[in-house]
Design brief:
The protein has five helices and no strands. The chain has about 120 residues and is an all-alpha fold. Helix 1 runs antiparallel to helix 3, helix 1 packs antiparallel against helix 5 and helix 3 runs antiparallel to helix 4.
């Protein structure tokens, strides 16, 4: 069970590192525009906000990496809960259910595995 838990915690951490990179460095580039379905003008206007959002995704990833490195699973539970709530809110506020599946489902699977 430990390996399955660690796999999902790692998966969520890497997803959030990827989100961080997209939001902080590729927001106005073709890769970021395509990933988020943005127009260039809007991306330019919102790039500071996106970088801030990316930084928060980085913090979520680091918290999960810390939990794995120290085997302090209460940290993993906390950060997986944060990711789940962020995914639910993101899907609700953007009306894009895909966001829920990409962000929250892996975190929820990790949480379920933590309690089995």
């Amino acid at each position: 069970m430990y390996y399955a838990q660690t796999f999902f915690i790692t998966l969520v951490a890497f997803l959030h590192l990827y989100f961080m990179i997209l939001e902080m460095f590729f927001w106005t580039k073709p890769k970021g525009l395509k990933a988020f379905g943005l127009k260039k003008e809007f991306a330019e206007e919102s790039k500071v906000l996106a970088a801030n959002q990316g930084l928060y995704n980085g913090f979520l990833a680091l918290g999960l990496i810390y939990a794995i490195a120290t085997k302090e699973m209460q940290f993993a539970i906390f950060f997986l809960c944060c990711v789940t709530v962020a995914g639910i809110y993101g899907a609700y506020s953007t009306k894009k259910i895909k966001l829920f599946y990409i962000q929250s489902i892996p975190a929820l699977i990790g949480l379920v595995l933590m309690f089995i």
